[in-house]
């Protein structure tokens, strides 16, 4: 009886923790944005005031709740799935390491076009991470996407945001990199639909749906931090005149769509290839 109740408790606790973490993070971001007129300036800040310390504390706790909720949900998913032996896990970890490395290389060295203030169009850099999610599910999808986000930040992102204010550094690292790229692991939710599809066209449809969803989620993360953080930074720096003529959300949407739209189209083009590779690999596993 206990074994039947525990997974449900993990699911409920995970969902509550996840939603509370998201709500708290959003609240902290909004408070930071509206609480100070000088938060996003391109210089190091003076010692934090008590309200700012409280806001940062809320942000840290909220992120902790978000991570805790994600772990509980992964535990629930694991408890409902078939346990793999150590040899299979080793094979999956090796596959994930290779895919993460490929994704990092593609992200850094295949830039077709770069937006003036950050963001770029690459050749299929998201495909390896989407493939992992579709191959092995949500747990491995989020884990690989998170490791990639940290690696990409270390190799590329940290050089773009060093020397700016503490607030911009924290928010850009957290949202523009960690959250935005970890969300690619959401493709793992479509594994069951791709696996259960009997025809190749259906597999392509679900793969394309997974690709479109993760691109939209990543776009939403970039838009959020662009509106709340980078809009003010851009106005302060006078890097272009357009930022002074529109609101922060319109500016952020228009700025981020210029590289995320072609990135999404390029990634969608690879969907049939991903389906073909998954089909071949699955057939070899069954032989």
Structural summary, described in words:
- The two termini are 38 Å apart.
- The protein is mostly helical.
- The protein has 10 helices and 2 strands, in the order H-H-H-E-E-H-H-H-H-H-H-H.
- The protein is globular and about 55 Å long.
- The chain has 2 domains: 1-83; 84-286, Arp2/3 complex 21 kDa subunit ARPC3 (Orthogonal Bundle).
Q: Which terms summarize this structure?
A:
287 residues; mainly alpha; Arp2/3 complex 21 kDa subunit ARPC3; two-stranded antiparallel sheet; globular
Outline of this structure?
The chain has 287 residues and is mainly α.
Structural shape = globular
Low-confidence stretches: 1-5, 35-46
Number of strands: 2
Question: Helix share of residues?
Answer: over 70%
Rg of Cα set = 20 Å
Distance between the termini: 38 Å
Instruction: Write out the strand line-up for the largest beta sheet, numbering strands in chain order.
Output: 1-2
Mean pLDDT: 77
What percent strand? under 5%
